[in-house]
Each structure stands twice: as C-alpha cells, then as structure tokens.
Predict the 3D structure of the following.
Amino acid sequence: MPSVKRKPRTYDPARTRAAVTAQFGHIAAAVPGLTPGQLGRSAGLGEWTVADLAAHIAWVADSLAGGLARPPAPAATLTAVQWPFVTAPLAGRIDAAARESLGGAPLPELYERAGARMAAALAEHPDDRVLDLWIGPMTLADFLVTRTVELVVHTDDLNRAAGLDIPVERQALAACTRLLADALALKAPGGAVEVRVPPFAVVQCVEGPRHTRGTPPNVVETDPLTWLRLATGRTGWAEAVAEARVRASGDRADLSSLLPVMS
C-alpha cells in the first residue's frame, strides 16, 4: 500500500454524511421498481446479476451500521486515500459476508432495514469515532468518504446494467472524484503530469520534470463520470481516448499503466 507523504485532502464531514445518506436514498427509491427481467441481467461485474449488485449496495449501508456497533479501535491507522489500495484482497470475504448478513431477504426489506440502521448509527456516533475494520482502523469521517465511492460507482453500475437513471448527488460525486484522483497521485507520485477532472479535482502525478508555471507539458483531462470508470476499471484507457472522453497531451500523458487505481 502506498504511504501518504503529502498532506491529505480534507472533506467537510457534515456534507459527506448528507451526501452518503442522500445517495443511498436515491438508490433505495429506485431498487423496488426493478422488474424480474432487470434483476436477472448481468451487472457487468464478474458473475453478479443486477440483483446481486443491488443487494451488495444494501450491505454497504448495513455494514456501516454494523461497524459502528462494534467496539471502537484505539486509533486510526488508515486514511481515506489509502483505502483504494487495500480493498481488492478482501473482495471474496466481503461478498461472502454480505450474502451471510443479508440472508436473502427481499430487496425492499433489505433497503428499509439497512437505511434505518445506517441513519440510527450515524446519529449516534461522532466523526472522530474510529471503526475497527477488516482493512484497518479508520475514522468514521474518512470511512464515509470511501462510502461515496461505493455508492456513486455502483449507482453508475446500476444505471448502465438495468437501464435506470438514478441521480447522483453532486457532493457525493465530488468526494468520489477527488478521492480517486488523490489515490492516483499517491500511486504515482510526481509532478510531470497534471490530471484535471473539472470541476472537482486537479492533481499532479508521475515522476519527471515538475511543472511550475504556464501550460503544463503533460495534461490529462476528462469528466467525473469517465474518471471514476477509468479509476475503477469500468472503462479502458484506449477506449476512452478513442471516444474523446479523455484528452491527453504530452509525452508522459499516457496513464494506461497506472489504471485502474482500484478494482
């Protein structure tokens, strides 16, 4: 896991809480209307169906409440920007835990229960509460930033797989975009390439000559939705460039070897 050498970005905890709650609410409002045909479609995530994906999203909220119900860890050792690098080895364990804890209940029931549990847990615990997680101890404030990634990315997954139009909260999209951009900068530290994801994030990365003034010699620019798809492996670099969803200029502006940031 890359170490944090620069000062991490800060997030407004109150706005992050509101964004997580609102984004989960948008998904919860859409899921009961899914037809059997939609639920049986491939989610585009391995062997998962749309039903599996929807159940996993309910677990994201339910497991947050479960984490807050456990005794706290003494101190946080993991930051939000490090989170993308520690999740992949636990994918199988997370999937198994989700299936066990959800117990195959109907999706409307799962969402009602998970939403109520999450709301009650968030109302009870402060932002500096340290959760004792499988990946390592993390403050509630930081963990909620990672929940924006889970919810925004999976909202996009649901929309594409089931033909939905679930809205994305601007604050949730902003936090998700910034976290994944910062993770890229952490993965490939340096100042040779400037990555722009307007209007939410600008980071410098990749070893080489550091840009100090004027127009940077190596620039990558894309929109937030394309960025989160690139950063999580939903879209390939070559495909995004060919479709003009990524604009890359400069000898060092090819990020294909650094993507995805997380999967």
